[in-house]
Amino acid sequence: MLQPLTIALPARRIIGLIGHNGSGKSTLIKLLARQQPLTGGTISFDGKGLDEWRSRPFARKVAYLPQQTPNTAGMLVSELVALGRYPWHGALGRFGLQDNRMVEEAMELTDVTSYRDRLVETLSGGERQRVWLAMLVAQNADWLLLDEPTSALDIAHQVEVLSLVRRLTEERGLGVVVVLHDVNMAARFCDEILALHSGMLIARGTPEDIVTPNQLQAIYGTRMGVMRHPDTGHPVSYVR
């Protein structure tokens, strides 16, 4: 359960949500994505309350990837990516040249064009996540809300997926809110980090501000040290 908080999220940046299990990260991103009803307070987007938005206009602005993605049995990669165009023409609308162009561009940007005729279920975890991101790119929204997109991936695929998110932010000017369990991945890929604890926002700042021994102990309740990455210089944490 989230406690009262007041935040404004800047566009064209990657904003990471971190915290212990049950801290409220997924609840917050579900509220932002209109996947969970508000029980109090207000959330505004583009000058309107979320409850004032109709579903399809909102989906043209905000794309959401849940932690548990839907079943895609029997679906081709190209078919899944094409679902991203639904907010623009509806279930019965004609799939036009613009839709085809957006789908092709999304697959190219996420490097999944070579999988287009493969069944989604035959792909590796990292490949599947890139296909889901391609669907969000085809949606042509201004914001991506990602709930633990790397939770089931090995380290190599985590880096691959988050590097893609970073590139999409820079090349497409997207705003991203992403829930992450790994504070080191957040420090490496996020512009700003929001730390939650027991439903409360307890810290907000750049990776340099958040990844410090005192802040990490407050967030996770355990003693942690911090060092500099030898190549990039960003802060890297470890348990003492």
Automatic annotation (TrEMBL):
It comes from the Bacteria. This is ATP-binding cassette domain-containing protein. It is found in: Cell membrane. It is a peripheral membrane protein. One of its GO terms (biological process) is iron ion transport. PANTHER family: IRON(3+)-HYDROXAMATE IMPORT ATP-BINDING PROTEIN FHUC. Residues 1-223 form the ABC transporter domain. It comes from Neorhizobium lilium. Keywords: ATP-binding, Cell membrane, Ion transport, Iron, Iron transport, Membrane, Nucleotide-binding, Transport. GO terms for cellular component: plasma membrane.
